[in-house]
Amino acid sequence: MSLPAPAENQAFCNVSALEAGYLDLPDHMFITGVQPGNATHAPSLAFLITHSKRPEKFVFDLGIRRDWGNYTPATVRWIKEVYPCVVPQNVIESLAKGGLSPTDVDTVCLSHLHWDHVGDVEPFTKSTFVVGGESLGLLKTGYPTDPNSRFDEHLLPLDRTRFLDDRTQWAQLGPFPRAFDFYGDGSLYIVDAPGHLPGHINVVARTSADGGWICLAGDSAHHCKLVTGEAHIAVGASGHGPAACAHADKASADFHLTMIRSLFRTPRVRVVLAHDTPFRKEQPDAFWPGRIASL
């Protein structure tokens, strides 16, 4: 089930990575075959996407906010106890390196509502926010209604937020059964990516007019060995879901991961994870105002 071939004068997207902080991920909580006590100092990547024929600017994820002490109290405890983080440069500063400000961004799409992806939304006063439909349930039961929630019920401006639910015009895209053609021209798709957290989504975009693609896979996997098949999702070491793993629904996460692996093995398709340490080390020119090279 291959990705669609380009049309004549096919529109595509230019994609740039954005620095958005780092966090220490205990390896045994995410992948099999590692020693307890080891941790990966991983980036929390965000991405700027610009259309080849339209002026719109689209940002995927906002990483970690510099003033992380302003997350919900439960999130702050979680950071201190489980995932230490540092933010040498946040998304706003990363955009500024290429002469952009938050008010230049038309769309902010969040892969999901975990703290290391939502950043600080307040400066994006002119943006429309796009999230998975099930994210709404997490917001409705968030802090302060639930004082122990790691989700902030006031995170998103609801009058400027689009929830991609069952009313969305989903269609098959390659291996993915539910994808939304965001611009309506085959250049950028938002993909329903169940498993990690309710409302989790990926972005799949064309990166050239002649057949290049990129899959921004969010937290569908936390380590590149899960994409290559060298390791499996760890269980019994975390408390996110019933399976005691990093995903709320391990079976769905495993199934979605098989689709990402099929893209990874496809010529001219690049797969980048939100916490992609090898990508960060090997692609310094991919960061704005540079761009990720099309395959």
UniProtKB/TrEMBL annotation:
Presence of keyword Hydrolase: yes
This protein's UniProt keywords: Hydrolase, Metal-binding, Zinc
SUPFAM superfamilies, sorted: Metallo-hydrolase/oxidoreductase (SSF56281)
Domain Metallo-beta-lactamase residue range list: 43-275
Protein origin, superkingdom: Eukaryota
InterPro entries linked: MBL_superfamily_lactonases, Metallo-B-lactamas, RibonucZ/Hydroxyglut_hydro
One family name in Pfam for this protein: Lactamase_B
Obligatory cofactor(s): Zn(2+)
Record-stated family: Belongs to the metallo-beta-lactamase superfamily.
PANTHER family on file: 102 KBASES UNSTABLE REGION: FROM 1 TO 119443 (PTHR42978:SF2), QUORUM-QUENCHING LACTONASE YTNP-RELATED-RELATED (PTHR42978)
Name listed for the protein in its UniProt record: Metallo-beta-lactamase domain-containing protein
